[in-house]
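Hey everyone, long-time lurker, first post.

I ran two proteins through the pipeline my lab uses and got sequence/structure pairs for each. Pasting them in order. The first:
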Amino acid sequence: MRVLFTILLSFLISVASASELTLRDYDEFDIPTGTHIPVISLQEFSTAYCEEGDRVNFEATSDIYLYNKNVIPQGTRLSGYIDKKNEPIIGTNAAMRVFINKMYLSDGYEIPVKAYVYTSNNNIIGGQLTPPEKYIRIPHYQRWAMFRAMGTLQCVPGGQRKMGEHVTIASGADLIIVLVAPIHMTHTIIN
């Protein structure tokens, strides 16, 4: 009975002292959707030898400030994977989309993110039309010419296009990552 009373008393004392603890005041905030983060690629990746789901890594090249705080310091690592990949076909180059799902601060703290490598083509890298396979030469005669034999030769694209090529992002390439969902930050690096 005495042991039970001692355990109960020590439990009550620990609960009472824990309620009096003062916690550090954390400033929680959100980094808004649409924020652009300049990064460099830490490895080369290509549609020629990468598959959907392959991991890719990036590093922030400049500090991102919000509310007069450095919320994403230079050197922050971002990690993601190839979300979608299209092989090259006749008429269209290969294409891929890279989804970013993790951000690692310099102290090792991991934050989940939702972002893509930004391109003006709806965040798809590559996918452009290929040039025509051949051009057809068509003569055009001017009506104003003194002699009807004078004219110009116009080259018109033919109906067939060339075979598409693979898309490669070199190691160290400057890219931009755009957030598609806000990041809820509860942790920042204090220098």
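...and the second, right after it:
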Amino acid sequence: MNPITASLADSAASAALERLAQQARHELALFDYPPREWVPPRERNGRPVLDVVIVGGGQNGVAAASGLQQARIPNLLVLDENPQGREGPWVTYARMITLRTIKTLPGPALKVPALAFQSWYEAQHGTAAWEALVRIPKQMWMAYLGWLRETLAIPTRSGTRLERIEPDDGLLRLTVRGPDGPAQILTRKVVLATGSTGAGGRNVPAFVETKLPRARWAHSAEQIDFAALAGKDVAVLGAGASAFDNAATALEAGAARVDLYMRRATLPEMNSARFMEFEGLYRHFAEMDSLTRWRFMRKIFASPMPPPPDTFLRTTAFPNFHMHFASAWEDVGLRGDGKIELFTPSGTHTADFVILGTGFAANLARRTELSAVLPHVALWGDRFQPPAGEESPAIGRFPFLGAGFELTERTPGQCPEIANIHMFNGGALPSMGPIGLGINGMAHGTERLVRGITRDFYLADAERFCAEFLAYDVPEAKLVPATPAMPSPSPT
């Protein structure tokens, strides 16, 4: 396509998206009832208080902001530590080619037709292109999320990191650091839309962290200079989708050899999470008793997901890719010639660089923004004692959440403000099921989150609303007959 044609195509696509944005605003207006702004504004010592601060401007943050706006809670702010356009994993550390979910999921559109990805895609490329599309390219999904943020006018402060949450007499005081330095924000609620790392961080084997120089290894969920791996021998630990994605990316960047190591004797073939994809579970998992939820989670944690077929084929297409089964790393070391040694049950192997596709671990102590409230946060291990033989320390380290994704107190009454911190991230899994992270259950998770926040806001002012209602004396329009009444006939 020549530059003039490309410019015309870009202009036409921009015009189509603007028309779609107008349609979306029209559809939102159709259901904007009742239109009353109902949450009374707050201030503290002359400073305005926000109703909600959403930490994380990725897909969960966009969905949460959209849901709250539709519930008439516009006094909110989204914070994201990344530059604008780099929120979430899609253009940072996600190394798949396309999303792994089906293209028709509602996602952050929250069932507003003009906000759906399909509408966005068809506006630019047409219905035939949509029918031909198999899965959504990740860069396209990122562009779509940016369009949603702009269309919905979501107030966002980019390049701003949350450093600390502290209780402040019924409110939450946030210390944040942005381009202009540190600042403090007062808010009634915080939604932590912080993705997979929201309950702790990257899972890194201690022997790798202590025995290898930091420049010689990376977790799959961080920035990696793949160009520097050209001609190198790369070792990948893990057998999930992310491990295979990173192996493929290294191979495509020209790695001399990539070896993938796993503890399992064979690749898993069953994805037990597929069972959980139905309306009833999405809506009501959080209402089950603790034992039933625990048993669901033990099955999920014990059933690793296989890599997607396209990811597997992308990797195994390279002749210099090798898989090692039953080869969990037992230790690592650094030889005198600079080679990394990997000690496994199948023997000792070497590499020049290591990539850890080892997922994420729940450990709230690693979330420094929660350090001031952490002693008061109830974990599953505090609230539930599983039957003998059904123990799981990994599940026990997750936060035990309330019905609206809120943290709960370890000892009731000691720090009630923590109920105003909502974990709309990977930390919600045992409490809420698969609706706090990922696209599949996002619409249901957002609905539950918004209902929990609006419930708290309404009940906090219920007496005020009652007093206003009892004093309500605004008359309707005076009723006047449309035509004069006819006089009664005289008696004869």
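Reply from user beta_strand_b:
Welcome! Quick read of the second one: The domain at 204-268+304-358 is CATH 3.50.50.60 (FAD/NAD(P)-binding domain). The mean pLDDT is 94.
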